[in-house]
Amino acid sequence: MIRVLLVDDQPLIRSGFRALLGAEDDIEVVAEAGDGSQGVALAQEHLPDVVLIDVRMPVLDGIEATRRIAADPALDGVHVVVLTNYGLDEHVYDALRAGAAGFLVKDVLPEDFLHAVRVAARGDALLAPSITRKLIDRYVTQRPHRNAGALLTALTVREREAVTLVAQGLSNEEIAGQMVISPVTAKTHVNRAMTKLHVRDRAQLVVLAYESGLVTPSSR
Protein backbone atom coordinates (compact mmCIF):
# COMPACT_ATOMS: atom_id res chain seq x y z
CA MET A 1 0.00 0.00 0.00
CA ILE A 2 1.34 3.43 -1.00
CA ARG A 3 0.91 5.92 1.83
CA VAL A 4 0.40 9.53 0.76
CA LEU A 5 0.49 12.83 2.64
CA LEU A 6 -1.31 15.79 1.02
CA VAL A 7 0.01 19.29 1.74
CA ASP A 8 -1.94 22.17 0.18
CA ASP A 9 -3.51 25.29 1.63
CA GLN A 10 -6.64 24.91 -0.53
CA PRO A 11 -9.14 22.47 1.05
CA LEU A 12 -10.96 21.97 -2.25
CA ILE A 13 -7.76 20.89 -3.98
CA ARG A 14 -6.95 18.49 -1.16
CA SER A 15 -10.43 16.97 -1.23
CA GLY A 16 -10.20 16.38 -4.97
CA PHE A 17 -6.83 14.68 -4.68
CA ARG A 18 -8.01 12.66 -1.68
CA ALA A 19 -11.05 11.37 -3.56
CA LEU A 20 -8.96 10.42 -6.58
CA LEU A 21 -6.28 8.66 -4.54
CA GLY A 22 -8.76 7.01 -2.19
CA ALA A 23 -10.48 5.26 -5.07
CA GLU A 24 -7.32 3.26 -5.79
CA ASP A 25 -6.80 -0.12 -4.12
CA ASP A 26 -3.05 0.37 -3.67
CA ILE A 27 -3.04 3.98 -2.38
CA GLU A 28 -4.21 5.56 0.86
CA VAL A 29 -4.09 9.15 2.10
CA VAL A 30 -2.71 8.97 5.64
CA ALA A 31 -2.87 12.69 6.51
CA GLU A 32 -3.46 16.21 5.19
CA ALA A 33 -1.86 19.56 5.98
CA GLY A 34 -2.71 23.14 5.09
CA ASP A 35 0.82 24.58 5.27
CA GLY A 36 4.42 23.46 4.94
CA SER A 37 5.24 23.48 8.64
CA GLN A 38 2.35 21.18 9.44
CA GLY A 39 3.32 19.06 6.45
CA VAL A 40 6.83 18.49 7.80
CA ALA A 41 5.43 17.54 11.22
CA LEU A 42 2.94 15.10 9.70
CA ALA A 43 5.65 13.56 7.51
CA GLN A 44 7.67 12.90 10.66
CA GLU A 45 4.63 11.44 12.37
CA HIS A 46 3.26 9.23 9.59
CA LEU A 47 6.37 8.43 7.49
CA PRO A 48 4.45 8.37 4.19
CA ASP A 49 5.88 6.96 0.99
CA VAL A 50 4.94 10.07 -0.99
CA VAL A 51 4.34 13.70 0.02
CA LEU A 52 2.35 15.75 -2.49
CA ILE A 53 3.12 19.36 -1.63
CA ASP A 54 2.08 22.71 -3.07
CA VAL A 55 4.83 25.24 -3.86
CA ARG A 56 3.11 28.35 -2.53
CA MET A 57 1.64 28.10 0.96
CA PRO A 58 1.44 30.19 4.14
CA VAL A 59 3.66 29.72 7.21
CA LEU A 60 6.21 27.62 5.31
CA ASP A 61 6.32 27.25 1.53
CA GLY A 62 6.69 23.98 -0.30
CA ILE A 63 10.33 24.49 -1.20
CA GLU A 64 11.50 24.98 2.38
CA ALA A 65 9.25 22.15 3.55
CA THR A 66 10.80 19.91 0.91
CA ARG A 67 14.28 20.93 2.06
CA ARG A 68 13.48 20.05 5.67
CA ILE A 69 12.00 16.68 4.73
CA ALA A 70 15.00 15.86 2.52
CA ALA A 71 17.45 16.85 5.26
CA ASP A 72 15.85 14.65 7.93
CA PRO A 73 17.58 11.23 8.07
CA ALA A 74 14.44 9.73 9.61
CA LEU A 75 12.55 10.64 6.42
CA ASP A 76 15.02 9.09 4.00
CA GLY A 77 12.35 6.90 2.41
CA VAL A 78 9.88 9.76 1.91
CA HIS A 79 9.58 11.00 -1.68
CA VAL A 80 8.35 14.56 -2.24
CA VAL A 81 6.42 15.55 -5.35
CA VAL A 82 5.86 19.27 -5.80
CA LEU A 83 2.48 20.50 -7.04
CA THR A 84 2.26 23.75 -8.98
CA ASN A 85 -0.33 25.79 -10.86
CA TYR A 86 2.29 27.54 -12.90
CA GLY A 87 4.02 24.87 -14.97
CA LEU A 88 7.79 24.95 -15.32
CA ASP A 89 9.24 27.87 -13.38
CA GLU A 90 12.14 28.63 -11.08
CA HIS A 91 10.17 27.36 -8.09
CA VAL A 92 10.19 23.90 -9.66
CA TYR A 93 13.95 24.04 -10.19
CA ASP A 94 14.52 25.20 -6.61
CA ALA A 95 12.28 22.41 -5.33
CA LEU A 96 14.32 19.81 -7.21
CA ARG A 97 17.52 21.24 -5.75
CA ALA A 98 15.88 21.08 -2.32
CA GLY A 99 15.30 17.34 -2.72
CA ALA A 100 11.99 16.84 -4.53
CA ALA A 101 11.68 13.68 -6.63
CA GLY A 102 9.74 15.57 -9.28
CA PHE A 103 6.80 17.85 -9.90
CA LEU A 104 3.26 17.86 -11.25
CA VAL A 105 1.10 20.62 -12.67
CA LYS A 106 -2.28 20.56 -10.92
CA ASP A 107 -4.25 20.26 -14.15
CA VAL A 108 -2.57 16.95 -14.98
CA LEU A 109 -4.88 14.18 -16.21
CA PRO A 110 -6.09 11.88 -13.40
CA GLU A 111 -4.42 8.80 -14.89
CA ASP A 112 -1.11 10.67 -15.18
CA PHE A 113 -1.46 11.92 -11.61
CA LEU A 114 -1.95 8.39 -10.28
CA HIS A 115 0.92 7.08 -12.38
CA ALA A 116 3.16 9.82 -10.98
CA VAL A 117 2.34 8.86 -7.39
CA ARG A 118 3.26 5.25 -8.11
CA VAL A 119 6.50 6.26 -9.88
CA ALA A 120 7.50 8.45 -6.95
CA ALA A 121 6.73 5.68 -4.46
CA ARG A 122 9.19 3.43 -6.31
CA GLY A 123 11.88 6.07 -5.85
CA ASP A 124 12.07 7.04 -9.51
CA ALA A 125 12.32 10.63 -10.73
CA LEU A 126 9.33 12.38 -12.29
CA LEU A 127 11.41 14.13 -14.93
CA ALA A 128 10.73 13.43 -18.57
CA PRO A 129 13.69 14.20 -20.86
CA SER A 130 11.83 17.16 -22.39
CA ILE A 131 11.25 18.67 -18.95
CA THR A 132 14.89 18.06 -18.01
CA ARG A 133 16.04 19.94 -21.10
CA LYS A 134 13.80 22.90 -20.29
CA LEU A 135 15.08 22.99 -16.71
CA ILE A 136 18.65 22.93 -17.88
CA ASP A 137 18.20 25.54 -20.59
CA ARG A 138 16.24 27.94 -18.41
CA TYR A 139 17.90 27.71 -15.01
CA VAL A 140 20.98 25.56 -14.62
CA THR A 141 22.90 27.26 -17.42
CA GLN A 142 22.19 30.67 -15.85
CA ARG A 143 23.85 29.75 -12.56
CA PRO A 144 27.47 29.11 -11.60
CA HIS A 145 28.55 25.48 -11.80
CA ARG A 146 29.50 23.70 -8.63
CA ASN A 147 33.08 22.52 -8.28
CA ALA A 148 33.05 19.48 -10.54
CA GLY A 149 36.37 18.14 -9.28
CA ALA A 150 35.30 18.10 -5.63
CA LEU A 151 32.02 16.40 -6.40
CA LEU A 152 32.95 13.89 -9.07
CA THR A 153 36.42 12.60 -8.24
CA ALA A 154 34.95 9.88 -6.05
CA LEU A 155 33.13 8.32 -9.01
CA THR A 156 34.54 5.52 -11.12
CA VAL A 157 34.63 5.92 -14.89
CA ARG A 158 31.57 3.68 -15.25
CA GLU A 159 29.69 5.56 -12.56
CA ARG A 160 30.39 8.85 -14.32
CA GLU A 161 29.15 7.34 -17.55
CA ALA A 162 25.96 6.16 -15.84
CA VAL A 163 25.36 9.60 -14.32
CA THR A 164 25.81 11.20 -17.74
CA LEU A 165 23.15 8.90 -19.19
CA VAL A 166 20.78 9.55 -16.29
CA ALA A 167 21.15 13.27 -17.00
CA GLN A 168 20.11 12.58 -20.59
CA GLY A 169 16.85 11.09 -19.32
CA LEU A 170 17.63 7.39 -19.80
CA SER A 171 16.11 4.64 -17.66
CA ASN A 172 18.21 1.89 -16.09
CA GLU A 173 17.26 -0.44 -18.93
CA GLU A 174 18.33 2.13 -21.52
CA ILE A 175 21.54 2.83 -19.61
CA ALA A 176 22.26 -0.92 -19.60
CA GLY A 177 21.85 -1.01 -23.37
CA GLN A 178 24.19 1.96 -23.89
CA MET A 179 26.84 0.61 -21.52
CA VAL A 180 26.40 -3.04 -22.61
CA ILE A 181 25.77 -4.24 -19.06
CA SER A 182 22.81 -5.75 -17.25
CA PRO A 183 20.01 -3.53 -15.88
CA VAL A 184 20.97 -4.67 -12.38
CA THR A 185 24.54 -3.49 -12.89
CA ALA A 186 23.30 -0.21 -14.37
CA LYS A 187 21.12 0.34 -11.31
CA THR A 188 24.10 -0.45 -9.07
CA HIS A 189 26.25 2.17 -10.82
CA VAL A 190 23.49 4.79 -10.47
CA ASN A 191 22.84 3.97 -6.81
CA ARG A 192 26.54 4.06 -5.92
CA ALA A 193 26.89 7.42 -7.65
CA MET A 194 23.94 8.82 -5.69
CA THR A 195 25.48 7.58 -2.45
CA LYS A 196 28.90 9.06 -3.22
CA LEU A 197 27.41 12.39 -4.31
CA HIS A 198 25.04 12.52 -1.35
CA VAL A 199 21.86 12.94 -3.39
CA ARG A 200 18.52 11.38 -2.56
CA ASP A 201 17.30 10.38 -6.01
CA ARG A 202 17.72 10.60 -9.76
CA ALA A 203 16.15 14.05 -9.98
CA GLN A 204 18.89 15.54 -7.81
CA LEU A 205 21.46 13.51 -9.73
CA VAL A 206 20.30 15.15 -12.98
CA VAL A 207 20.54 18.65 -11.53
CA LEU A 208 23.97 17.98 -10.04
CA ALA A 209 25.29 16.49 -13.29
CA TYR A 210 24.53 19.71 -15.13
CA GLU A 211 25.51 22.08 -12.33
CA SER A 212 28.86 20.35 -11.95
CA GLY A 213 29.58 20.61 -15.67
CA LEU A 214 29.71 16.81 -16.16
CA VAL A 215 26.99 17.27 -18.75
CA THR A 216 26.24 20.45 -20.67
CA PRO A 217 23.22 21.41 -22.79
CA SER A 218 25.39 21.35 -25.90
CA SER A 219 26.33 17.71 -25.21
CA ARG A 220 22.73 16.46 -25.14
From TrEMBL:
UniProt keyword terms in alphabetical order: DNA-binding, Phosphoprotein, Transcription, Transcription regulation
4-aspartylphosphate found at: D54
RNA-binding listed as a keyword: no
Ranges of residues in domain Response regulatory: 3-121
InterPro entries linked to this entry: CheY-like_superfamily, NreC/VraR/RcsB-like_REC, Sig_transdc_resp-reg_receiver, Tscrpt_reg_LuxR_C, WalR-like
Keyword Transcription regulation: yes
Ranges for domain HTH luxR-type: 148-213
Name the record gives this protein: Response regulator transcription factor
Source organism of the structure: Dactylosporangium fulvum
High-level lineage: Bacteria, Bacillati, Actinomycetota, Actinomycetes, Micromonosporales
